[in-house]
Amino acid sequence: MTEENYRHVYVVIEHIDGKLLPVSLEMLGEARRLFDDFNARYSSNEKIVAVILGNNIKDFSKELIEYGADAVVCADHPELKDLRNTIHTKVISQIALDKEIASRIEPDYAKEFKKPRYIFFAADSIGRHLSSTVLVELESGLASDINKLVIHDMTVTHQIKTEGKPTLFKKTLEMYRPDFSGFLWTTILCLNNTTPSIKREYYPQGCSIIPGVFEPIKPDPKRSGEIIFYEPKIDENDLKVKVLSHKIVKSEVDFEIRKAVVSFGRGIKDAPDENIKLVVELAKQLDAEIGISLPISKKLLPASQAISSTYMIPARVIGTSGSKISPMLYVAIGISGAMQHIAGMQDSEFVVAINPDENSPIKNECDIFINGRMEDVIPLLVEELKKQQQVVQAG
Amino acid sequence: MEPLNLAVIVKLEPDFSEGNVSYKPDGTLNRNETKSTLGPHSGIAAKAAFYAKVKYGAKISVCSMGPPWADIALQQAQQTCDADVLHLYSDRIFAGADTLATAETLKTGIEKMQGKMDIVFSGHRASDGETGQTGPQTAWKLGFTFIGNVISYDVNLEKRTVVAKCLLTLNGVPNVIEEIEAPLPVFLTIDPSYKSNFTTVSQRIAFEKYQKEAYERARNFKQSLKVFNIDELGVDKTLVGLAGSPTIVYQVERIPKGKATRQAEVFDGSNSEHIRKVVAKMREALSAMVIK
């Protein structure tokens, strides 16, 4: 087998309640940028294949092509209306291995095609799990929660994978994952098996992509592409799993309707309950919604049940793992400013940071840096806000 | 009716709680100085299994792949769910495994447990890197129906089915809660917002009884513990550890600091004149007409 047997990038599209999720178009945008460059460098003509499963979803195909797909594989079937892991995993895997589909995508390589070269999923509640099960079914490697992708030929020396010998891996996808702290990047590679005694081929190279990281391309209504309808083979036995209900829940947190957002981070640690109360007081004065940094949502700081279940929840996280916001005023309290947080707030109009450490990265991302501890600064701010408010009312 | 046979997969992780975690000056984790503990998401998975034990009666086995000292994670999990059996899969060859290879080890271990499993539980993700693949990958290898993001569940013992409520968090659209029914066996990954709903007096009595038992068992946890090396587990060597991992960690680097996007004006937080100016600017920002 050569790497020529593995072709294209398959992008698994997500949609819910009749709408494409933004991350689907973001993935297509990044795939387009990667593949325009890839095809130029390698003088090839590999494609971006959007894979979409559902019921009554044919109308999405045109939009997916406008946003960068060269081909759309559409599995439209009443039993695919709901998302059921087993059925979806099997149908995506069928599509990935289907030679008939491959021959429609690129007739010249119809005979050689074995598997997709790369496969992209979204790193959300749907894609994280689907990517995991599909990559087991296809017996290949997966890197999750990726926010940067690079493709090139790499020579890798690895004690076990290459028995210590420098080995060339062509067209390798470098998958960058930010770690939990937001300060480190781990590069993950899915390298094909080089041990002849083991009959395995580690393709496709799979990843799940963090929503909100990549930009979609500008849709082009003139773009054309191949639309392929696939009749899924569904196992009777898998139909015993049923989705009994599907409810949209309104979040108790709404960043959109407020002009201001006040967020806090690990800087509250000395007295979580008291400090969060201070933050709440400041937010009240500014009529602001309350946000948090990612580590706070992990509930590792001791706080009372009432405080923690109201404020230390994932719905409040600002950043790549939470919401991307652009309020008129953003106040960052005790937040050091890891990249993944910055990505969520950098579009704010005006940014104020309160922090005792002038070397924290947040200083480069704010308009006003108040040097001080929140315990000291917030009460002064609250008092001054009340005072200036009164002046306005009196005037 | 047969009692339920349950397994829980847990992981030893760095203890990120304040006082136990240590960061280097550059903000990255100092692994040498940081203690290890049962991962918080693993703890929630154990709690979810305990719910079934209290409500329906069950036998619980907890397993983990890790170094010999990962037995403390099993002990902590036992204290949470009153486990009957603890399995540790520990061998140098397992080290460096990616999630596919880890799933192979765990699947082999679970299939070795006594009786056929009805429900296997795992956490939503690990807090130190693994991003939630191991659960679904183990499920697929076991051939169990996978249900993720579970916030509550119940079992119908007569029909041998489970009904689980799942929270889907998606970007750009409101969250969704789905209710899924599936015949046993199933594999559930438990969402951080999971809650056990004990409603009746008899459940509360059972809860207290098993909690006491759990405390006693955990004190003598080595009596329930069995450690397996690769040969004892009987797993295919080419499918586990680094050899069985399609992916490798190629490098770890610092994420380059972004260029300063704003030029901050620095104010002294203890100076009342400074505070007055800051508040004036904040109010100005809020009253500005923004044309987008």
Automatic annotation (TrEMBL), chain B:
Annotated TM spans: none
Signal peptide: none
GO molecular function term, any single one: electron transfer activity
InterPro entries in UniProt: ETF_a/b_N, ETF_b, Rossmann-like_a/b/a_fold
PANTHER family the record matches: ELECTRON TRANSFER FLAVOPROTEIN BETA-SUBUNIT, PROTEIN FIXA
Protein name stated in the entry: Electron transfer flavoprotein subunit beta
Species this chain originates from: Marine Group I thaumarchaeote
